[in-house]
Amino acid sequence: MAVGIPKPTLKPPVIKRPDPALVRRGEARLIQLRKSPAGDAVRDRVVSRAVARGIVSVQQAQEAFEVWLESGKKDTLWRTLSMHPEVDHEAVYAEAAKIYAFRPIDLNSEPPNDEAVKKLLELFPSERQEKLRQLRILPLERVQKAKRGGSRLLFATHDPTNPEILRFLHANVQESFDLCYAPESQIIQHLERSFQRRNEFLERLRSEEEAMDFGAHLELGETKKLVDEDALDAEINRS
Fold it and tell me: Concatenated DSSP letters for the chain?
């Protein structure tokens, strides 16, 4: 009698549920903020999420709201909140990236390949490379598409919701690309490293060109010296 092979039992995914006590405290903070003069701040999803999770305090949200009103609401409230001197701005930007569904990348645990970054930087003219640096955009790699074939370029930035960053990439990248989030400190670290390697390479090229020019001048000078000595010998012989 054949013995059947038992089918593997599929375990349902473990869903990590939030701590009820943390949820209650978060809700209490939101109620406190909603009842304050800065109650409209809860309309900003990033601010309300940051307050509920304890990333920022109710008081910090209120102070940012006042500054935001005084500035004429020129920017989003959550960006104003991120500039509060007592707020961890990277934590606020990370929360914004989560809300707007940008994939996070930890460049410390997943460091980019230097050669891949260099090749992608070379796709941009020098002035555009400097703009990448100013906007804190780090080219990471070319990712191959598994299903449809082809590839997409992958970039990381600390502020993937910034319209200026999106406009710059759409105007200067002729291929499909994806944008993900990484902390600003990590972006700066890897950008400076990449540009330092690029500047060292350019400096080396410049030095080699100067050495070649110097050698050419020496050869020219030696040739001229030989010609002058020959002319002098001829003049002496004629005499």
Answer: -PPPPPPPPPPPPPP-PPPHHHHHHHHHHHHHHHHSTTGGGGGSHHHHHHHHTTSS-HHHHHHHHHHHHHTTS-S-HHHHHHT-TTS-HHHHHHHHHHHTTPPB--TTTSPPPHHHHHHHHTTS-HHHHHHHHHHTEEEEEEEEPSSS-SEEEEEEES-TT-HHHHHHHHHH--S-EEEEE--HHHHHHHHHHHHHHHHHHHHHHHHHHHHHHHHHHHHHHHHHHHHHHHHHHHHHHH-
